[in-house]
Amino acid sequence: MASPNAHAVVRDHRFAIVVGIDAYPGYRDLSGACNDAEAFAEWVTDGAGGAVPQENVRVHLGRRATDVWSARPIKRDIDFSLHQFLQAVRHGAIPARLYLYFAGHGVAAALGTATVLMADAAPGMSWNLSLDLYRSWLLRCRDFTEVALFSDCCRTITLEIPEGPPPFDTCAEPYPYPQRAFVALAADLGRPAFETRDARGQFTSLLLEGLRGGAADPLTGEVRADGLAGFLDALAERSDPPQRAETAVLGEPLHFATVPLTAFTVQLELGAGPTRAVHVLGAGGDVVASADRPAGPWSVELARGLYELDDPVAGAAVLFKVDGPDVVVGT
Question: How far apart are alpha carbons 317 and 77 in whole angstroms?
Fold first, then answer.
């Protein structure tokens, strides 16, 4: 069966589970995870963003806790939310999209690559949710034809912690839909993720900037998984302390939103050199403007977003951002 196209999942068949945990009685508290989760929930329910109906969203926040026994959310809370959504789509043979967003403490437990520590985690009792095992289970059963998984968590390797698996029975056979997915993790394997001084995750701040238009195709205004992956590559240059996002586009790239295009005049100062072709690349690596090397400044109309100036004479690509008028870029 052919893969559903980018617009096949109607609004009523979109679902989201959003988790943010600041309070960890068994570990060090965080300050920005709940802020990030609330900001993502705002985007995912926005009609111009994720367009998920409010009744199809479950937001689990852990702002305060006195001890590990009363701390929330726990893994069972997340599992119950997912169970509710599974019941809504299972046996319905409908294309459906699931957003999963996590912000909090994380590790790479056992032999897995990414797990989220729950609020009741503590040394010797590290309750967690394995993103690897949940992603594999979702692919195995394919109740959701589209899955977008975002994690703003550390990925330090911790071999002694077992991975927390999904509690659901394994389906006898998958639904006959090819599953398309996008996975974006805030840090490279074995590395930490960081919060900013204003209590926001560096990764989530860039992620939402991209989803709101920074990663949009400058020719169509579409925010797709491939363009968002390219946009998130800029985290390595824009973060302090530095961190590098890891992304994976599985199957045909998901379409996240379409934003209105507003073009701004960008002046590119190329300097002296022989006449050779120069190019401007968009976030997804597509060429959006080309010219033979002009004798003077090169003016280009570009929408908001991240771009790369490919100038052979300069010897290196120049990354720049368009976020308004009066942008001047020099090589």
Answer: 47
Strand (E) positions, the chain?
A: 14-21, 57-62, 97-103, 106-109, 115-117, 128-130, 146-152, 156-158, 180-185, 222-224, 246-250, 255-258, 264-269, 277-281, 287-292, 298-302, 305-310, 318-322, 327-330
Which parts of the chain register pLDDT below 50? Answer: 1-7
What are the structural domains, with CATH classification, of the chain? 13-251 (3.40.50.1460), 264-330 (2.60.40)
Residue 93: what pLDDT?
65
How many whole angstroms separate alpha carbon 202 and alpha carbon 328?
Answer: 26
pLDDT at 321: 86
Range list of H helices, the chain? 33-45, 75-89, 131-141, 202-209, 225-232, 235-238
DSSP symbol at 143? S
Given this model, what pLDDT does residue 219 score? Answer: 79
The whole-chain average pLDDT of the chain stands at 90
Position 6 scores a pLDDT of 41
In this structure, which amino acid lies at residue 103? A
Task: Please give the structure tokens belonging to residue 266.
Answer: 């960008």
Q: Of 150, 138, 279, which Cα lies nearest the Cα of 204?
A: 150
Show Cβ contacts of residue 7 under 8 Å, excluding neighbours closer than 6 positions: 255
Give pLDDT, residue 91: 65
Backbone angles phi, psi at 132, to 5 degrees: -65, -50
CA distance 131 to 266: 41
Please name the amino acid found at residue 16.
A
- 113/133 Cα distance (integer angstroms): 10
Q: Which residues contact 118 (CB under 8 A, 6 or more apart)?
A: 21, 73, 74, 75, 78, 127, 128, 129, 164
Tokens, residue 125: 């009792």
For residue 295, the model assigns a pLDDT of 67
Residue 303 structure tokens: 């929408």
Looking at residue 262, its pLDDT comes to 79
